[in-house]
């Protein structure tokens, strides 16, 4: 075992009481500690003579304590410690607030070094709350570039610095170098040991920058290496060839009620070409809301079905799974017995309910050729006969673990497909900015639907302040009178479905009683039974409701062309990409559609963000903007990316990511088994366990 993996509980100089607090910071082993880097640095490196101190500067002085005492001010209920420090040039007051114990640490007559801000009051200048240490000690907390860590209750930067110095003394030499030498040279990066040391005990700011760059590169490089390797592995595995059946596809396309867009044709062709190969496809189909991804997936599923194999289509929500089921039922009228749906609460083909046992049998025997569902598809009890194609819709809504699990589950196939991996088609409406695509999906092939079906009208988007609400309500009443319908979306206030469900319920009451007493209003939220959700959706489609109030569960998928108004409450809480998705729910008919962004926030930043939505209808542009304004962490969730926060921070650095990818690729070209880099191989295995890149 590498010594750096030693748990901190076994380190004698880390007091036990700190362990739980460190754990909260994600620090459990020596390595974690050494990789827990400061988030900023205070420059205390300049030593100033006391006589030269100036108001407002941050300074370090060295001198003798001439006096020190605690003063209690009863009025403000504050403990003040006041001292006088002197050097050969003069003396100055020092004041600490609410740290009465300091008097135990610094006795009169001791030589100390202090760093802090020079403040000013009636009595003249004073050093305010300075960091201090005995002058004879090597500079740790004062007199240098001082690292500041993100602290948690009870773990101070001061303590972290002290322990980091002890750990570094003991373990610095054991920090492994994971970047091959040639790459370090080419990329002009400093070594691992030096970088870690500089980050905790910086010589100067330039060194800190170099160290940060090196650590960022390391993280990206390992991620890219894992991704390049995953791609190679994927390309090496076997898949079922699905022959391209031109007549079948042509006839099917002719039977559709619309003409495919050029982008749909092109993507379909790319996919059908991929699945013809004996190696598994791994393709991401990106296309704005309403760009028509479903039918593209359906064509691939049709070919697969006619070749005698099975397709699994996984959607993130039950509502969406049901909608797909409806769509497939319709377009595959003649084969509808072969299309099934499986969710946590239901399993059936067409309208025929099945017992679960019976249904699972149909999947196992291959009678169901196209199985649509939610996470329920990856339960262990689900066993396919010959699954050859997997489609993951709205893949950005799934965590990395779930995506990996679906793939793994599908790899355990029975029968003649024992050694093959199904072709994988992921679909997303989140246009992923180029940098992120490279960082996360570098191992995927990309098809893009950059064209909406013809005849879609521009959606009028407006920001609505509280003062204008009534006007908008009035407008909605008029539109509904003309026969249109409206969505009202509420933000998921808490992660908890329970609370947001309640908020939506209350809002539903408010709208029904106070705002639109004469209209029929439906309610949809995540805590409802699937059957009830489906009923509500169906009723809304059938125009039994004028308005549908919903939490963000309907973010994905639902298709109700007659609904032309989208109202988003608390719109400032959503990301641009998500708002754009909501907006895509309307604008699907010949009537003019509207999107109203309700907000109570008057902040300039909110306004800037929401304005971007008015100005642009291009999902890709909005995504870039989101990335710019909110940063990658907000854009692509941690859970979804599987990345550590530290790595997320570097995602906006295109050049770094590109360089890391180029190096990772060339390393594999040169040594595909990583024989010359056994250490790298081990590290990679660890990463594979933590991050499952497709
Ligand atoms: P998304 O890409 O958001 O998943 P869908 O596949 O749900 O989009 O398609 C949105 C709507 O557009 C559906 O009602 C679908 O039938 C329709 N549609 C798809 N392709 C076309 C097309 N080429 N022309 C007209 N309508 C289309
Ligand atoms: Mg869709």
Give a short synopsis of this structure.
This protein is an alpha/beta fold. The protein has 24 helices and 22 strands.
How would you describe this structure to a colleague?
By secondary structure, this protein is α/β, with parallel strands linked by helices. Among the domains are: 46-143, Nucleic acid-binding proteins (OB fold (Dihydrolipoamide Acetyltransferase, E2P), Beta Barrel); 246-276 and 292-428, Rossmann fold, CATH 3.40.50; 460-616, Rossmann fold (3-Layer(aba) Sandwich), CATH 3.40.50.300. The protein is 40% helix and 20% strand. It has 24 helices and 22 strands. The strands form four sheets. The protein has a nine-stranded mixed sheet with strand order 12-11-10-13-9-14-15-8-16, sandwiched between helices. Strands 17-22-21-18-20-19 form a six-stranded parallel sheet, sandwiched between helices. Helix 6 packs across helix 7 (205-236). It starts with 18 loop residues before the first helix and ends with a helix. Adenosine-5'-diphosphate is lined by residues 258-261, 264, 287, 289-295, 429, 453, 559. Adenosine-5'-diphosphate binds next to helix 10.
Number of strands: 22
Number of separate helices: 24
CATH architecture of one domain: 3-Layer(aba) Sandwich
Which structural class should the secondary elements be placed in? alpha/beta
Helix coverage percent? 25-40%
Look at the structure and give the CATH class of one domain.
Answer: Alpha Beta
**Percentage of β-strand residues:** 15-25%
**Bound ions, cofactors and other small molecules, one mention each:** adenosine-5'-diphosphate, magnesium ion
- What is the topology, as strand order, of the major beta sheet? 12-11-10-13-9-14-15-8-16
CATH topology of one domain: Rossmann fold
Low-confidence stretches: 637-642, 690-694
Q: For the residues shown, what is the average pLDDT? A: 84
Supply Rg. 31 Å
Write out the CATH superfamily name of one domain: P-loop containing nucleotide triphosphate hydrolases
The biggest sheet amounts to: 9 strands, mixed
What is the terminal separation in angstroms? Answer: 29 Å
Outline: globular
């Amino acid at each position: 075992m590498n010594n750096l993996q030693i748990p901190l509980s076994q380190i004698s100089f880390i007091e036990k009481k700190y362990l739980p607090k460190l754990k909260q910071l994600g620090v459990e082993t020596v390595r974690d500690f050494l990789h827990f880097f400061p988030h900023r640095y205070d420059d205390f490196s300049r030593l100033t003579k006391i006589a030269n101190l100036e108001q407002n500067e941050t300074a370090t002085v060295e001198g003798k304590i001439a006096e020190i005492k605690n003063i209690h001010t009863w009025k403000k209920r504050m403990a003040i410690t006041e001292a006088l420090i002197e050097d050969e040039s003069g003396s100055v007051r020092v004041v600490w607030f609410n740290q009465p114990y300091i008097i135990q640490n610094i006795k009169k007559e001791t030589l100390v070094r202090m760093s802090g801000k020079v403040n000013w009051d009636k009595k003249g200048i004073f050093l305010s709350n300075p960091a201090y240490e005995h002058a004879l000690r090597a500079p740790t907390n004062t007199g240098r570039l001082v690292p500041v860590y993100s602290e948690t209750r009870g773990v101070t930067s001061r303590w972290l610095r002290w322990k980091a110095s002890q750990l570094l003394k003991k373990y610095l030499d054991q920090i492994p170098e994971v970047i091959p030498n040639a790459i370090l040279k080419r990329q002009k990066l400093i070594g691992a040991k030096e970088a870690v040391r500089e980050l905790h005990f910086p010589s100067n700011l330039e060194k800190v920058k170099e160290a940060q760059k090196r650590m960022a590169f390391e993280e990206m490089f390992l991620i890219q290496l894992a991704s390049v390797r995953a791609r190679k592995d994927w390309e090496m595995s076997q898949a079922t060839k699905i022959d391209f059946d031109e007549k079948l596809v042509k006839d099917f396309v002719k039977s559709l009620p619309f003409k495919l867009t050029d982008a749909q044709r092109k993507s379909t062709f790319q996919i059908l070409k991929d699945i013809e190969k004996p190696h598994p496809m791994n393709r991401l189909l990106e296309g704005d809301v309403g760009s028509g991804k479903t039918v593209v997936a359906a064509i691939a599923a049709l070919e697969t079905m006619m070749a005698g194999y099975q397709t699994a289509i996984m959607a993130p929500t039950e509502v969406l799974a049901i909608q797909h089921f409806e769509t497939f039922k319709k377009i595959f009228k003649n084969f509808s017995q072969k299309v099934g749906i499986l969710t946590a609460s239901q399993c059936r083909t067409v309208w025929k309910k099945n017992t679960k046992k019976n249904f699972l049998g149909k999947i196992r025997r291959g009678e169901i050729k196209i199985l649509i569902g939610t996470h329920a598809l990856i339960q262990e009890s689900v066993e396919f006969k010959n699954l050859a194609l997997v489609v993951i819709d709205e893949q950005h809504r799934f965590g990395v673990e779930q995506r990996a699990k679906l793939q793994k589950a599908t790899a355990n196939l029975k029968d003649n497909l024992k050694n093959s991996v199904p072709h994988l088609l992921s679909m997303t409406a989140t246009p992923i900015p180029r940098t992120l695509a490279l960082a996360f999906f570098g191992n995927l092939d990309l098809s893009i639907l950059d064209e909406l079906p013809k005849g879609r009208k521009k959606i009028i988007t407006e920001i609505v302040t509280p003062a204008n609400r009534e006007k908008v309500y009035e407008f909605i009443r008029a539109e509904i009178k003309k026969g249109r319908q409206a969505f009202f979306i509420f933000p998921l206030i808490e992660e908890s479905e329970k609370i947001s469900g309640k908020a939506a319920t209350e809002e539903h009451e408010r709208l029904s009683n106070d705002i639109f007493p004469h209209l029929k209003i439906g309610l949809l939220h995540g805590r409802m039974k699937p059957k009830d959700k489906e009923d509500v959706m169906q009723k809304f489609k059938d125009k039994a409701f004028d308005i549908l109030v919903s939490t963000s569960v309907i973010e994905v998928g639902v298709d109700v062309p007659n609904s032309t108004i989208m109202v988003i409450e608390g719109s400032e809480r959503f990301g641009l990409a998500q708002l754009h998705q909501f907006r895509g729910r309307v604008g699907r008919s010949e009537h003019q559609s509207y999107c109203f962004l309700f907000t109570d926030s008057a902040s300039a930043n909110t306004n800037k963000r929401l304005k971007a939505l008015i100005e642009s209808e291009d999902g890709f542009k909005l995504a870039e903007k989101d990335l710019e304004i909110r940063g990658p962490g907000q854009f692509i969730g941690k859970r979804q990316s599987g990345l550590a926060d530290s790595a997320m921070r570097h995602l906006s650095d295109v050049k770094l990511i590109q360089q890391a990818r180029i190096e990772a690729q060339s390393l594999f070209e040169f040594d595909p088994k990583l024989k010359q880099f056994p250490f790298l191989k081990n590290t990679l295995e660890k990463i594979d366990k933590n991050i499952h890149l497709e």
